Every structure is written in C-alpha cells, then in structure tokens.
Amino acid sequence: MTSASQFVPHTLNMPIAIKLDDDNFLIWEKQVLATIRGLKLEKFVRGDAIPPRFATKENETAKTENLEAKTENLEYTNYVQQDQLLVAWLLASMSSPILTKMVGLKFAYQIWKRLEIYYAARTRAVIKKLKLQLRMIKKDKGINEYLLEIKKIVDSLVVVGSPVSDEDHIDAILDGLPDEFDGFVTSITIWLTERGPHVSSRMVLHQLLLAQEERFEKGKRSDTHLINANIVSGPNQWQNPNQGRGRSAFNTRAEFRGGRFHNRGGNWNNRGRFNAGRGNGRSNWNQTGQNNWNQNKPTCQICGKIGHIALNCYYRYNQEYQNHPQANNTQFQPSGYDISETTTLATPSTVQDPLWYPDSGASYHITHDESNLSMKSAYTGTDSVNIGNSTGLHISHVGHSYFHNPMSSKHFVRHNLLHVPSITKNLLSVSKFARDNRVFFEFWPDCCNVKTQDTKDMILQGHLKDDLYVFPQFQKVQIVYAHPVQKDSNHSLFQLWHSRLGHPSPRIVKLALKHCNIPSSHFPDSFLCDSCCMGKAHQLPFVQSTTEYKSPLELVFTDIWGPSPVPSSTGARYYIIFLDAYSRYSWIYLLNSKSQAFDAFVQFKTSAELQLGMKLKALQSDNAKEYIKFTKYLTEHGIKHRFSCPDTHEQNGSLERKHRHIVETGLTLLANASLPLHFLAEAFLTTTTLINYLPTPSLNNWSPHQTLFQTPPDYHFLKTFGCACYPLLRPYNNHKLEYKSHLCLLLVIVINIKVINAYLLLVNAMCLEMLNLTSLVFHTKKILTLF
C-alpha cells in the first residue's frame, strides 16, 4: 500500500498549439515529444517494459470470469492509469479525420505506431509531390510573389523532413525565370560558381532579381518617343492671293477651317486663333497636317501620297523614279503664303544620347545614329520596334557593328543592329551581346562590368547615369568591304522579272521567259537578292575537319544523353559519354540526374590518365549549364575547355552520331532478348563495349580498342546479350543442399583490359548480381523471355 500512496500520475494538461492533421505531423510530433520526454514518459509510446497484469501465475490461470476476484499487479495498474491519461491527451490533440484512424487502439504505443506507419507512407508521397512542384514552378507573377511561392514549397519540404539545399533552392529560382532573364541567369550562374551557393547568396539573388524586374518595368513605362512643341515668335501676318468666300482659322489645337481659300489677310488673336477670311466648306487639320477625312486612308510607301498603297502605285515599276521622303510631322503651308508663326518640333534627334545602355529586356541592339553601323542595308520589311507604351518605331536599316575597347585588345561585334531614327537612346541587348561575344554581365549597385566567360577578364565597365547603367561611346572599327554597284540595265531588268515571278532561281527565271519568247540570254547566271537572303536563308554545309590528333586524350568530346522516359533498374535516366578524338574510344557513365555529370567527369579523368599514362589536354562540350561547373576545375588543371557554337549541333557531330549508334543498337539488343525498356541502361553499357571492339572505316578498319591500346580485341569472350547461362552460385548459398546454379540471363558485359565480368539476372529470384564470366556455363542458343 505504501507504493500505491507514493504513485502520482501526470495529468498532462499542457495544451498543444495545433491539432494533428494530414499535413503537420512533424511539427505536432516535435511538440508532443518535448512534453513526453520532459515528463519521462517515453516508455509508454515505445511500448517496452510493460509490467505483467497479474501478480502470480495462479491468478492469471484462475478459472473465473470475475476479474475483481483476480489479484492484479499494482505496477500494471499504475502503468495503465498513466498510459490512459497519455492516450486521452494524445487523442485530444488530433483532428477529427485522424481520430477516426485510431478506433480500436487501446494503449499509447499502439496509437504512436499507427501514426508512424500512416505518416511514413504519406510523407513519401508528399515529398515527391512537392519536389515536382519545385521543378515545374514558373514565374508568372512579380518577383516577390514568385520567390515567396518557392519559399513556401521549400519550407513545406523542411516540414516533411526533406530539406532543400541552398544550391537546389537557387537552381529552382533560376530555372523558373522566363526567357527575358537569360542574360541575367548566365551572369548569376558564373557568379555562383565562383562564390558558392549559401544563404547570403540567395539573399543577394533576391535583391538582384528585384532590381532586374524594376529595370523591365521602367523600360515598359518609359516613353522613348519624345516630342516637344516650341513656339517661335515672328511677324503675325501672311498673305493669301486666292479669292473666294469662306472662313478658315488656326487655333492652338492646330485646327484649320476652310475649303476654297478666299482671304484678304488675317491675324492671330490672343487665344492663338488665326482668322484667315471666308470660304466654302470646312475641314479640320490635326497635328500632322492631315485632315480628318484622310486620317484613316493608307499612305503609299513608294511615292508617299495618301489614298493608295504601294501595290497600286503608278510608280511601282518606274526604275527612274526617285521618291523624296517627307517628314512625318509636316506643317501645313499653302502655296503662296508667308507663314509668320511656325511651330518647331523637338524630335528625338534633338535629344539623342551617344552613350550605350545595357537592356536585358531588348531582343536586338538598337541605335539612333546610322554611323554606328559598320555594315548596313536598308530595311524593307513591315516590322517595327515595340516599346513600353505599345508604340511601333520605324526601322530604317539593319546591319552589324564592330568596336574596340581600350580595356581589351579584342574586337567585339553587335550582330543584328537596328537603326531606329526615332529612338532616343542606344540600347545594347544583354542576351545577344553575351551570346555573340561569349561574355557575361555583372550588375553592381554603382557599376556594371562585362567579363569574358573563359578568362573572366574585364572588357567593359559602365557606370550609373540617372539610375540607369550606361557604357561610354564605343570606338568603332572601320571594316573595308566590297559593295557591288549594280547599275547595269540587264541586271535591273532581270531583277524585275525575278521579283515578278516570286523570286525563283536564275535558271527558272530564264526558262519561264524563254516560254514567253522574251530574250534572256544576256541575263546573269547568278546574283545576290536581299529578299531571297532574308526569306530563304538556310544553314550552309560544314567543311570536313582536316585536323589530325596524334595521341590519346589530346581532345575528348563529351555530351549528356537523356532523360529516358523509362528509368533503368538502378534509377538512371541519363548517361554522360566521353569520346576520344584520336582513337574514337568511348566511355559512358550512368547518371540519375544531370548534377552528377561533374563527378563522372572527375572519375573518367582520373581513370583514363592513370590507365593511359597521358594527361587530358582539351575537353569539348556544348553550352549546357552542367558544363559551366567544369570551368574552374579545368582551369586549375590546365585543361582547355572548348565550347561548340550555340544551336550548332553539327560541331558535335561525332557525339550525335555516337548517341544514335548506342541508342539504336541498345534497342536492337533488347528486342532480340525480348527484354523490356527497364533494362535499357544495361543494353547501353553492352553496346558501348561492343562498339569499342568493332572495326571502323574511319580508323583504317581498326577498332577503337586496338587504336587506343595497340592490341587487337579478343572476341572469344563475347556472348549474346540476354542469352541463358548457369553461374556457379555455391559461394552465395545459405546451406549445402541448395542448388549450385540457377538459370540466369546475361545482361551486361563490362570488358576492361584483362578483367571480364557480367551482370546476371536470376530468372526465378529476379536478383541482379555481378559474377565472374569464368564461372559461367552459357546456353548461347537459348533466349529466355521474362515478361
């Protein structure tokens, strides 16, 4: 009785801040466990050390239904009392949907075990769903809302026990940005490669994204088409020699009233209205000097007159007609009048800025100064430059520009430079300049730097002007080039027929004219048509490379294939390939994700250099962001990193053909073995081994293996992919009476210089093991079908 008087159960009256539901188990668990551990009640949720119910065995086996007649163990009674208080406290902290899952459970440890089983399965599904959301999220709102949405997903992953690293967090932010941020993403990626991702980098990235978004918004709000009207004072009388009846007037809104002019003189009143006499009819003139009845009529692009289009123009086929362009903002001045009061328009030409402004939202370089174009041609298309206020600005010329900067001895190019006379500032497209010159931009609070991607040398430095980044005026490089002068009448006539017939080839033009009995023998056999260049441009064939490589590892090509729609048996969806330019020998490594590419490269470099006794000199890849991480490592080891031109897969033609060879042969092996795509990775590994052992005409009928190791390959060890075999399994048996072998399938042959191994698939146990080929008995004529 003394022990009973000393036992005081804990009532657990501490409230839980939140009730348990389907989404907050980890937070709820942290609060509950803190209380349980504080009261030293862990044994109740673990379910260990439960005392026996009855004090003696006689009481437990007594044949009576009256439980009170049996003597219960006092420790058990105290245990149950405390356990039920804990059960009541746990159930009180759960929501109704969770309570329904606890029906039929008596003790606390039973409740706790069911919660762990339920939320373990649910947590895996939630983690998979959240990671998919993190990969698929795209910026369709403001930067703050976009980053907050990513932060919510990251926090949710932390809650379910799968925290996201700073590197993956930053990658998710950059991957979801739209195309207009491409230049910004390239600069940030290089910066992060040097600095390393961590919390402070993410905070700096947040501020830089806000600044970049503000620049985009400012570009949309700014009105680059500035027109200011300035009144020039002068004499206030003008004469009209015409006679007639009517009335006309100029007011401050530039309205003109009058039809047939009959004026004896007039003057301006104090409200800016000019009374010019009387006349029949009335017409209102707007700011451009056009009357309202002509406002919606088209303007001819050939003669400049109103009322018809170029297709119906009388001067369309007149080769000698020269149009005199008229300004868009033309003052109305009737013939014979001496205008004493004029309005001067301050067009963008009066406020143009010679400096260059980097713009990440511009898709082309734009200039207002025609002299900035080193090579140019007149633009005859109908496109215009759209600015923030939806105004379309006329494009006068298109060309290229080369410039030199004192900070660098290299010349830089601005392709597709548009000459827009009405623009007020020279705009430098960040994305095009970075892509064309292989540079990246760094935007700091007080300056803007441009550096090369290879050596990170600074080539340009800008400063802030009116809260905008600006570069000084560039020193243009004069390019001397031949410009054909086409004045021959035969050439002009041929060009006319070439245009009429829809721009066919010169041979077709001559055939068509021959059928119409039009002399065409004096026409040229070839000529350059600007319209054909613009509309029929296609990729020119590449010249076959004549470079010869004298030793292995002098140049290695690399590329990543994937993702495969079906994962392999090990979960791999990608593979990275390394192709030696000298021997055409291939190495492939299976990858679960592209982020493993760098580790695979380090493994390849270490193995290849050690086995071949030579150093890797150069690596060629495309511009994928996975290879940007290689730059620092390659620079430290003195390895040259060569990049193929953007969108030019032909420069990696060897790898493209190798990918096709591996994939097609791998699918053929699977089809022959009647195996599903689940074993595609094993087929790729076997295919690569076989390709290295096969002779090729490009190596004078030697195999890549023989070229690299100077020894002919041994084909005696090769077996059919997917054939039946019986391996010696005695070392893997559990007892002496187990069978010493089972029927298996040969899946992968990995052949090195001396060691030959194979992956085997047990037909019955479906177990993937790696065994030595010397312990195998093959049934090469037997192909098994598992599925």
UniProtKB/TrEMBL annotation:
GO terms for biological process: DNA integration. GO terms for molecular function: nucleic acid binding; zinc ion binding. Residues 548-712 form the Integrase catalytic domain. Residues 300-313 form the CCHC-type domain. Pfam families: gag_pre-integrs (PF13976), Pol_BBD (PF22936), Retrotran_gag_2 (PF14223), rve (PF00665). Keywords: Metal-binding, Zinc, Zinc-finger. InterPro entries: GAG-pre-integrase_dom (IPR025724), Integrase_cat-core (IPR001584), PolX-like_BBD (IPR054722), RNaseH-like_sf (IPR012337), RNaseH_sf (IPR036397), Znf_CCHC (IPR001878), Znf_CCHC_sf (IPR036875). Gene3D superfamilies: Ribonuclease H-like superfamily/Ribonuclease H (3.30.420.10). PANTHER family: OS01G0873500 PROTEIN, PTHR47481. This is Retrovirus-related Pol polyprotein from transposon TNT 1-94. It comes from Cajanus cajan.
